[in-house]
Amino acid sequence: MTSTPDREAYGFRSSSERNVEEAATGTPVHRTPAESLDVLLVEDDAGDELIIRESFEANEIGSTLHVVRDGAEALDFLYRRGAHAGAARPALVLLDLNLPKYDGWQVLEAVKADPDLASIPVVVLTTSTAEEDVVRSYRLRANAYVSKSVDFDRFVATVRHIDRFFVHMVRLPGR
């Protein structure tokens, strides 16, 4: 029989645990700067963007979500060009594959080929469940491949898991 690690020993608290603590102490419990990330969402579908925004809110994700609508704009944001000259360097990229101008694979390939950007984790977040898409994404060095669920509650849970993993479990460069 294996035991599971004590959540408190690792500092994990659910949003409801934070709410209970806040109510008991009267002091707002916020994420520390180490728990807050700049996240770049590369998504051309306004409906999917809304679901992701709602997932961030439902999960009380304190990260800043920046949204771009196509592959060319994603590269402009990452390279801080044009309208995105003052953009924050994202600590995480959520990347759809089916994009106008440059598709998600072209963006992924550019990010992972650039020594200044290659360390940014890229999570492919797409509707595709095709094995060839999964294989191609990992060959281009995606850090994770996640299929969007059509069920809202499952999708919200998926976004929560991505947040917990990349904010609470792993150490990202420069954090």
What does this protein structure show overall?
- There is one protein chain.
- The chain is an alpha/beta fold and 175 residues long.
- It contains six helices and five strands.
- A five-stranded parallel sheet has the order 2-1-3-4-5.
- Helix 5 (131-139) links the parallel strand 4 and strand 5 (144-147).
- The longest helix has 18 residues, at 152-169.
- The radius of gyration is 17 Å and the shape is globular.
N to C succession of SSEs: HEHEHEHEHEH
Strand residue content: 5-15%
Poorly predicted segments: 1-16, 18-23, 25-34
Structural class: alpha/beta
- CA-based shape: globular
The number of distinct helices, counting runs of at least 4 residues, comes to 6
Report helical residue fraction.
Answer: 40-55%
Main beta sheet: 5 strands, parallel
Lateral arrangement of strands in the main beta sheet: 2-1-3-4-5
- The end-to-end span amounts to 35 Å
Mean pLDDT rating: 82
Number of strands: 5
- Rg from alpha-carbon coordinates: 17 Å
